[in-house]
Structure formats: structure tokens, C-alpha cells
Amino acid sequence: MTPTALSASRTELFRPRFHLTPEATWMNDPNGLIRYDGRWHAFYQNNPHGSLWGNLSWGHAVSDDLATWTHLPVALPCSENEMIFSGSVVHDAANSSGLAAPGEPGPLVAFYTSAYSESHPTRAGIQAQSIAYSTDGGTVWTYYEGNPILDRDSKNFRDPKVFFHPETERWVMVTVEAVDYRVHLFTSSDLLTWEPSSTFAHPEVDGGIWECPDLLRVPVSGPGARPGQEAWVLVLSTNPGGPAGGSGTYLLIGDFDGRRFSSEGSPRPLDLGPDCYAAVSFSGVEGDPVLLGWMNNWAYATQTPTDPWRSAMTLPRTLHLAATVDGSLEVIQHLVVPSEIRTLELGDGAADGSSESTMLDAEEPFRVRGTLSALDPQQLVLRFADGSSQAQTLVLSMDAQGRVVLDRSAAHAAPFAPDHSLSHPYAPRVPSDRVSYDLIVDRSCIDLELDGGRGVVSQQIFPGGSEVTVSLEPAE
Ligand code: FRU
């Protein structure tokens, strides 16, 4: 299906309300996420001139509640010989960079990858790290005249994520050499000059190029946790090699001493669905990190049937670690769900024998909560229809082994991404355990939290129909 096969009003029907989408252009990775002065800023990879990847610049939107977003002008525009690839923003409160005038409040500093064109006079095809800064709280940005600030003469060195490490009193920058499967870390005292500190590789993350790293300090709680326990988590996107095929995001739990990240564990999927890539955290958040991902997949990102806008962000999610009594760490993520969303409580379908169905307006966002059990396998079915038209279905099912899968293979009005229709199965630690689900449906954007946050699934769907029937049925 080509995007133009659908009318403009049809593609507007796919536009979610609580997920960030670009107004009328292309979007990929979230960039420069920061909570600053009480507002959430999301910059993003944007083609200001079209609905396909190209002319990469940083778009900009702000939110007071992480649910509704207001668009601001393009923050970092590309130029003829330089695209502005992914990166991050920090608040340089102490003006350690000297980029604000003496006595003025510290600036916001953006780190991005300068992706120089093949016809660039001195850096043809090179990717290097550069800076822009804002002294008005993030609306107007100035490119630093000393750019690039970090150049390895590499064609795949990108995606700087910067944070402050108070124990060593240094700024830390996490980057990738994408095709070498390596994370490169650097430290700095002034944000302008950077020293290499270490590199990180992992034999089990080898399915695709590495992109968009993030390094997070994550609180640990739970019965096996020590008071004040924390761990460090490296978040890494790979393309392909994702958990549900195509591109996807993983995390590794480990330790960080201010210079070097180490991990003895295996990578775990951040998201079990096909549509969460380049997920990174907001700067300026205390406690549990808050992450946002690109709700798309490089395997088919240019074919989503919306035009001229294309792509959404996932719902934000918080990240936490829970130590079990045996000391192992579980990854717990909670979706940040808008408070005013309609909620359907299906409860425990197996126990109360309910088989009712409820019809809702498919154009309004809604949430369905309930529990699945392997003892009496049930499936949650969402049927999208328009009176006489054939229905499309989204099915959340649990098999007899207790594994939960979200299946969008029949959820589209026209064939879409058949190779990526199933989420990676979620298996509870004890197979007979009940698994709670919390499903958020915001038109084309589906976010699912399973088992109290132990599994999260992001999927896009493109059904026809203005009505949706929600029912719990015996599993097939
Ligand atoms: C990830 C990515 C980044 C790069 C950006 C370019 O999706 O490939 O590595 O900075 O997109 O748009």
C-alpha cells in the first residue's frame, strides 16, 4: 500500500492524540529530551521539507504533562553540506562551557552529530560531534563556532548522549561507532573539550549496527535491594536485530565508575514490540528515568500509510529495577498514561466468566485493563469496523505455557509489514502466573504494559473503521 492510496482525511484518522507526531513532515529518533524549568522538551529527527528521511534537522515540541504537545519552530536546521543527526541536550547550570555571557543563567547545550555530505570540502562523508546552545530556554539556538568539537575521522561516529557525573565532577558523553559495534565514552569538565575514557563492546549484541546509546543511573528497590541501591543501565538500539525483527532497543545492566561501563549480564529487550527504536531518557529528571522511543521500525518506516506526517513517538515510560529475594534484577517499566483517557476494566475474565463485549468510538483514545491466565487461556480481541465493512482485529493472547503475544497481523485495512506482525513473546517467571495487561489504544499507536511493568510492547496499527468492539474470548 502506498501512502497516497489513502485520502488525507483517512491518514488524519490515524493521528494519535497523546503520542507526539510531527505536524506535516517526517520524524525519526527522539533527540535532546530534557525537563527544564518545569516543561518537557522533545526535539526529534525531522525532515522539515518532506515526509521521507532526508534534510535531517531537529524539530522541537514542548509539553507540560507529557501527553499533549505544542510544536515550536525547527530548532537545529540542516545546511547544504551538513545534516543534524541525533543527540542530546543538557542544562549547563554552572555555565562551565562559558557559552552564556558572564553573570547570565547557564545555557542549554545541545550535542548532535554533524553528518557531513560527500561534497563537504574538508570532511566529506564524516560524522563528528558538534554543539549548539540556547540562552532563552530552548527556543532559539546558536551553532558553536568551534564545531565539530569531537572528530575521529570516522563515517559512523554518532549519537552523543551527555550527562553530568557528580562523583567525578565530570560531564560524560556516550557515543557509538555504529558499524564497529562499539560504544565510545568521553569525559569533559567544560563540555567543549573531550577526552576518551573507555570503549564498550558486548558479544551478544551483534545483530545489527549500534545506534543511539544512553547510560542511566537507575534506582533499585524490592525485597532483595539494599537501601539506596542503584545500578547503571546502558540502553542501545540495533538495526536490524531487534526483539521483534528489524530495528529495536535493548538494555544491559551493569556498573559505571565515571569512566568505564561494565556489564556481566545479557542484553534484555527494552520493548517486545516492533515499534520502539532509539529510545533515550530525559535529562533533568531525578529518580526513575523517563524514556521516549521512536514508534517505528527501519524495516518499514517509510511505508507507514500516513502522509504528509509520518511517525510517532511511543508513550513515555519510567524505568526502574526490582531486586528479587535471590538478588536478581527485574526491569520494570511503567507507561506514563494520560489521566483523562477512557478506561475499560475487564478485570479477571477467567474468574468472573465475563464474555461481554463493549463497543467504543475508535477515533477516541482508550485503555483496557485486565488479567490473562494460562489456567484458562483467554484472548483480548479488538475488532475495528465500520458497520458493513470487514473488521480488522488486534489480538492479545496467552498460550497454555503462559506466554503473551500481541498480534497485529489482521489489524490493518491494507497489508502492512507482515514479517513484523507478532511481538516478541512475554513469559512470566512462573508460567502459571496470571499476567496483568494495560493496553493503551491511541488510534494507530498501541502501547501495552504487561505483568506490572515487566514487559512493554509498542506496535503501530492501521485499521479502517470508526468503531471498535472490545471482547475477551476463549483462546483459539
Ligand atoms: C537512528 C539513526 C541515528 C542517526 C539518525 C539519523 O535511527 O540512524 O543513528 O543519528 O538516525 O537520522
Structure characteristics:
476 residues; Tachylectin-2, Chain A; Jelly Rolls; 2 domains; 2 helices; globular; binds beta-D-fructofuranose
Notes on the structure:
It contains two helices and 32 strands. By secondary structure, the chain is mostly beta strands. The protein folds into two domains: 19-335, Tachylectin-2, Chain A; 342-474, Exo-inulinase, domain 1 (Jelly Rolls), CATH 2.60.120.560. Strands 14, 15, 16, 17, 18, 19, 20, 21 and 22 form a nine-stranded mixed β-sheet that branches. Strands 5, 6, 7, 8 and 9 form a five-stranded antiparallel β-sheet that branches. The chain has a five-stranded mixed β-sheet with strand order 23-25-29-30-31. The longest helix has 6 residues, at 8-13. It is globular. It starts with 7 loop residues before the first helix and ends with a strand. It binds beta-D-fructofuranose. Beta-D-fructofuranose (FRU) binds next to strand 1, strand 5, strand 10 and strand 14.
A few lines on this structure:
This protein has about 475 residues and is an all-beta fold. Helices cover about 0% and strands about 45% of the residues. Beta-D-fructofuranose binds near residues 28, 29 and 85.
The span between the termini is: 30 Å
Helical proportion? under 10%
Whole-number count of domains: 2
Shape: globular
CATH architecture of the largest domain: 5 Propeller
- Strand fraction equals over 45%
CATH superfamily heading of the largest domain: Glycosyl hydrolase domain, family 43
Q: Please tally the β strands and state the result.
A: 32
- Gyration radius, in Å: 22 Å
Associated small molecules: beta-D-fructofuranose
Coarse structural class: mainly beta
